[in-house]
């Protein structure tokens, strides 16, 4: 809300992904040069996401950052365990087979995947910084 106010924009006091998306769209149109910095600040303020299970007759929060209610994320199942879970569920659903996971198991898997992704991010961030330092050092060293 404070960042939006600095740009003469009022966001509601309760989190509202649509209002945030509208704010970002307007800011990108108004100042496309500085928008990447603003976008990065907002992403960092949102923090990391978490995996949640949407069970029948329940409402999951959707994807706040994308401002969409119905959302499933999947990339390459050979790289990420959450994607493998999604692929297994889709395969059994399309094949009319029993589901590979029960409701309580899915909830636990979602928690586990969120924790492991957070753990991976904690390791990856310092690793990237060290890599950038190494590249910068090696480029400076070549000049001598």
List keywords for this structure.
144 residues; mainly alpha; 5 helices; 59% helix; 0% strand
Describe the protein in words.
The chain has one domain (2-142). Helices cover 59% and strands 0% of the residues. It contains five helices and no strands. The longest helix is centred in the last third of the chain and has 40 residues, at 103-142. The radius of gyration is 20 Å and the shape is globular. The termini are far apart. The model has no long low-confidence stretch (mean pLDDT 84).
In short:
With 144 residues, the chain is mainly alpha-helical. Helix content is 59%, strand content 0%.
Please give the radius of gyration in angstroms: 20 Å
Average pLDDT, all residues: 84
Unreliable stretches (pLDDT < 50, length at least 5) are: none
Query: Helices and strands, in N-to-C order?
Result: HHHHH
Q: Report the helical percentage.
A: 55-70%
Spatial shape: globular
Whole-number count of domains? 1
Number of strands: 0
Largest sheet: none
> Cα distance, first to last residue?
50 Å
Summing up helix and strand content along with how strands pair, one would put the structural category as mainly alpha
Q: What is the number of helices?
A: 5
Query: How much of the residues is beta strand, in percent?
Result: under 5%
């Amino acid at each position: 809300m404070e960042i939006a106010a600095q740009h003469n924009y009022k966001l509601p006091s309760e989190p509202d992904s649509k209002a945030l998306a509208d704010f970002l769209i307007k800011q990108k149109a108004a100042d496309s040069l500085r928008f990447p910095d603003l976008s990065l600040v907002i992403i960092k303020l949102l923090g990391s996401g978490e995996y949640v299970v949407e069970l029948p007759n329940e409402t999951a929060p959707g994807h706040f950052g994308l401002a969409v209610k119905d959302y499933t994320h999947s990339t390459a199942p050979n790289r990420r365990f959450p994607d493998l879970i999604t692929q297994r569920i889709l395969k059994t659903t399309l094949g009319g087979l029993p589901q590979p996971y029960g409701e309580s198991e899915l909830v636990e898997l979602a928690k586990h995947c969120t924790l492991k992704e957070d753990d991976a991010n904690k390791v990856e961030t310092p690793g990237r910084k060290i890599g950038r330092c190494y590249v910068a050092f090696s480029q400076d060293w070549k000049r001598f």
